[in-house]
Design brief:
The chain is an alpha+beta fold and 74 residues long. The chain has helices at 38-41, 43-55, 59-67, and strands spanning 3-4, 14-19, 23-28, 33-37, 72-73. Helix 2 (43-55) runs antiparallel to helix 3. The longest helix is centred in the middle third of the chain and has 13 residues, at 43-55.
């Protein structure tokens, strides 16, 4: 079940997420859903993404600056 992203800044492209043990699914405002995994992006990156998702701030920026296209098909 996806969780609504808090979007504290009010400017995020992320609207929902779902975190698992070794992945995070991210849904963007264009309805695209991307699956980022330990295998595709690395453990430290995924854990940072989970942390930002819970905080509700900085996830979209982090993805665009550091994660980029390191996703799998959702």
């Amino acid at each position: 079940m996806m969780i609504r992203y808090k979007n504290i800044s009010g400017k995020s492209g992320v609207i929902q997420y779902q975190a698992g043990s070794d992945y995070i699914l991210v849904k963007f405002i264009n309805d695209a859903i991307y699956r980022y995994t330990y295998a595709s992006a690395g453990k430290q990156v995924i854990e940072k993404m989970k942390q930002l998702a819970k905080q509700g701030k900085g996830l979209s920026t982090y993805i665009s600056q550091f994660v980029k296209d390191n996703f799998e098909n959702a």
